[in-house]
Design a protein that fits this description.
alpha/beta, binds flavin-adenine dinucleotide
């Protein structure tokens, strides 16, 4: 065997050494104390694609091939040799395996169940670091190279973009073929008896075909929520997996609480759509929102938090000393305490045909993915706050020209000085103050935009991409007034709750609400959904972690 001698999809990656580190004999002995040692025989399939409860192997002798196997083909992805280990982040996330592992040279392995592997990474900091780093690097490479069990056949439609965003934000590797650009697509459609009108389609492991699936259908099919018990009474149920919810999950799970996170879409929330967060402590060169979210998601699961994807909370019920979070599919999850971290959603201009351009020319985030769509084109960024400034500066690197449309008369009151300076220093960004969009036109995709400036003059220009960075409204509709809200719909907590709020909510305790506690005892609100929040990743993370100390107190009452 020699990993370098054989050409595999991952062997040429720049970070191959980080993905496939070699363990010391002392480290292997420590891992072995958590599992069993057993022989392996050439040709034996240790794990197959789609398998759940995936075991973890450290090779003592022999060789294992990592293969992407589908009904269409088998492709060698990597080769694992002595003192190396198997697995990718799916193991930590509790998702089904994406690859087949087949023994290519007989030998011996240390084998751990998923639970044993979890116990190992929670107790052995040195091994945890080596394993987690490798598993994250493997997943990043798989996503970058599109090495996974999903093939998406799509077009430039909004539905295709939605599916791409959902898979990308959930860190699920996929390969995408475009009906209009890739030559092999017609053959593939014929093979699966599909008509072009039926795309986008998701093909899993070369077998199952999902036609224009909802995010929930994709999550269910790919096993994102497999094994999560709906009936079990948890110490804390966290609603929302943005920075605030994920931070609460990391702290609660690492402090021994039984945690379930419910996320309507994908982990990361608004931060997940940020191209580069430059003001988060400890990242002097910035970090993309997706990377931060992916790391936090893995971290929460490493400590044992469960995360339910593509399931929205639809109601908060109070039932005899416990709460119930009813999901949009009708299931109710019981909880001793609840942390609400549902954040906020973007404001949209009130244009009748607006919805038809969402994802087809109108975007709420400006990441690498959206930037690719407008390479060399003219774009509009709407908004006067930091997110708009970041988007304008980022898009100016790829777009021919960026029009920054601002409703107010200047940026100084709403945007950080450093961003204003960068915008002023970028000749391809043009600021248009006291200006707003009055019409969007196009057939299937945005083609033309009309805007009105402060003088009342209307300009019409052929522009195919509009990035809306215009602020957000609290995601509190699902609470149906169960907790006290401020006039703008954000949740009141702690000192913000007046005696009238508490009387209206029939606050039952002698003590006042804790910091971050809502008008219901044991129900907390953190991050952008909370009244008085400061709309920053760091503050959302801080509030999520602080809330956990009050969750402990509420549980002890
Ligand atoms: C484009 C952009 C760039 C930004 N850049 C920066 C930056 O550089 N620095 C910075 O400090 N801040 C930045 N921000 C702000 C920062 O991202 C937010 O302050 C932060 O994400 C708030 O975190 P949160 O967890 O409170 O809420 P959110 O991030 O809004 O997350 C809420 C989560 O709850 C989920 N949810 C909503 N309703 C339900 C429901 N009923 N059931 C289940 N789940 C639900 C949502 O899907 C979402 O995932 C940026 C924001 C945007 C939009």
């Amino acid at each position: 065997m020699s990993e370098t001698a054989r050409s595999t999809l991952l062997s040429s990656a720049a970070n191959a050494a980080l993905m496939f580190p070699v363990l010391s004999s002392a480290q292997i002995a420590r891992i072995a104390s958590h599992g069993v040692i057993r022989p392996i025989t050439r040709g034996e399939v240790l794990i197959d694609g789609g398998q759940t409860n995936v075991p973890f192997f450290v090779l003592k002798a022999g060789e294992i091939e990592v293969i992407r196997a589908s009904a269409l083909e088998e492709i060698l992805v990597a080769v694992v040799g002595p003192a190396q280990f198997t697995g990718d982040i799916s193991m930590i996330l509790g998702r089904p395996a994406q690859m087949r592992l087949r023994v290519s040279d007989s030998g011996e392995v240390v084998q751990l169940t998923r639970d044993q592997m979890h116990a190992l990474i929670q107790t052995d900091a040195e091994i945890s670091e080596v394993l987690m780093r490798a598993l994250i690097h493997r997943r990043v490479a798989m996503v970058a190279e599109g090495i996974g069990d999903v093939l998406l056949i799509g077009s430039g439609s909004a539905a295709t973009l939605r599916i791409k965003q959902f898979l990308t934000r959930n860190g699920h590797p996929f390969k995408c073929l475009d009906l209009d650009r890739d030559a092999d697509v017609q053959q593939l459609l014929a093979r699966f008896h599909l008509e072009p009108a039926e795309i986008p389609v998701v093909i899993c492991r070369g077998e199952a075909v999902l036609k224009n699936p909802s995010n929930q259908e994709i999550a269910d099919y790919l096993g994102f929520n497999k094994g999560i018990d709906h009936t079990h009474l948890r110490d804390v149920v966290i609603v929302g997996a943005g920075p605030a919810g994920l931070a609460a999950a990391v702290y609660a799970a690492s402090e021994g609480l039984d945690v379930l996170v419910i996320e309507a879409s994908s982990p990361g929330g608004q931060a997940g759509s940020s191209s580069r967060i430059e003001n988060y402590l400890g990242f002097p060169t910035g970090i993309s929102g997706r990377e931060l979210a992916g790391r936090a998601y893995a971290q929460a699961q490493k400590f044992g938090a469960e995360v339910m994807i593509a399931k929205g909370a639809a109601e908060l019920a109070c039932e005899h000393n416990a709460y119930g979070v009813r999901l949009d599919d009708g299931v109710t999850i019981p909880a001793r305490t609840v942390v609400i971290a549902t954040g906020a959603r973007y404001r949209r201009p009130s244009l009748a045909n607006f919805g038809q351009f969402e994802g087809a020319g109108v975007y709420y985030s400006a990441t690498f993915m959206e930037a690719q769509l407008c390479n060399g084109d003219e774009v509009i960024v709407v908004g006067g706050a930091n997110s708009a400034g970041q988007a304008a500066v980022f898009l100016a690197q790829v777009a021919r020209h960026v029009h920054l449309l601002v409703r107010s008369s200047s940026l100084s009151a709403s945007m950080s000085r450093y961003l204003i300076r960068r915008i002023e220093e970028t000749p391809t960004i043009q600021i248009k103050t006291r200006t707003e969009i009055v019409a969007l036109e196009g057939n299937g995709h945005l083609e033309r935009v009309r805007w009105r400036d402060g003088t009342g003059a209307v300009t019409s220009q052929d522009i195919k991409h509009v990035f809306l960075m215009t602020g957000a409204e609290a995601n509190t509709g699902w609470l149906n007034g169960r907790v006290a809200l401020d006039a703008k719909g954000f949740i009141k907590t702690g000192w913000d709750l007046t005696q009238e709020d508490l009387a209206a909510a029939r606050w039952p305790l002698d003590r006042s609400p804790y910091l971050l506690e809502t008008s219901l005892p044991g129900v907390f609100a953190v991050g952008d959904v909370r009244c008085g929040n400061v709309k920053r990743v760091a503050s959302a993370v801080g509030e999520g972690s602080i809330a956990v100390s009050f969750v402990h107190r509420a549980l002890a009452e």
